[in-house]
Write a structure and sequence with these properties.
Keywords: DNA-directed DNA polymerase, Nucleotidyltransferase, Transferase. By secondary structure, the chain is of the alpha/beta class. It is 47% helix and 7% strand. The chain binds zinc ion.
Length: 371
Amino acid sequence: MFESWLLNNYNQFKQSLSLNHTANSIIIAGDPSLGISKLVLKIASLYLCSDRIENEQCNNCKSCQLLQAEENPTHPDLLFLLPSGANSKEKSEDNESSSVEPVTHSIEDFINDMDYDLNHLETFQTGGVRQIRVEDVKSFCDWIMQGSVLANGKVAVISNAHLLNESSANALLKTFEEPPADTLIVLVTKSFDELPATILSRAMKMQVKSVLGDEAKRFLQYHYKDEYDEGRAEIALTLANNSPYKAIALYNQGLDLKCSCIISLIDDVYSGKKSENELIQALESTQEQQRYMILKEFILELLKYKARISIDNLPFMKKVNAASLGSIRAEVLFRASDAVEDLKPVKTGIPQRAPNSVLRSFVELLLSGRN
Ligand SMILES: [Zn+2]
């Protein structure tokens, strides 16, 4: 099944291809956890197919077969440029991941790179230490200038293009401005703002929009079939900002369950059934990025509740005595929503425990809103 929320973007490309209006370069922007790698591969497959039938790939030609290979598919006319740097941060015994080549034909390595944030949810390694190196851009551009192997065009993809630094962006510019006629260059970025204007002005721009609540829920329902639990899905999607793949990763890790435990505990402390210390201990034993996500979203939902947004749209509030927690004064919630930022992990990739006192004062602030 091709993701419903990517269809508009794919159709946009398909249409430009059928009208022979395809730009030589496309920039795709959006949250990588929306499955943008699938969109890129679908676009590349269609472009490289030698025998398109009514504007769809034939699934039968040499090119289509190569791309649909079961094991480690590669295509000689499809190349990926990946950022490097993060692998050196990974544990040294993990030799396999440090062998990833930044300029590669490996579709698997491209997908893993696009799923970087999803694969690092637990440890909260950020993409900040990674960069697209200028020497890799140069070999990537050299490849673009060569002829194609199957004689049906070439596709060159830059994954996480927001990690281009100034000199690597400059090294790309000339090829990007004047690629060979039968070549499609695709840049994938988290947002257009993170690319230099010189690059932006040269390409067709495609924004992958965020997924609507019901569509995201339907995807999770389809994914989990009989195991699907609507309450859990709603919490996971809220934590994942409605990204279905991220929600699945969080759901599989049980983060939604941990989240439900913590908000029930806040509810119990609020009504005097449990002690403040129990809550602080539970928060301390939660991984810091997860704790930050849960508390931030919880405060936001409380504010939405106070703004009279229907409880049907507030999955966290469904889990608690909303009338009681809803009595926390708005001014306290506004202060808490500032204070929760002090609990945000520092983006070094090195886990840093928020000092106990910051957490304690956050809890005290929240409880001070009791009437
Ligand atoms: Zn084909």
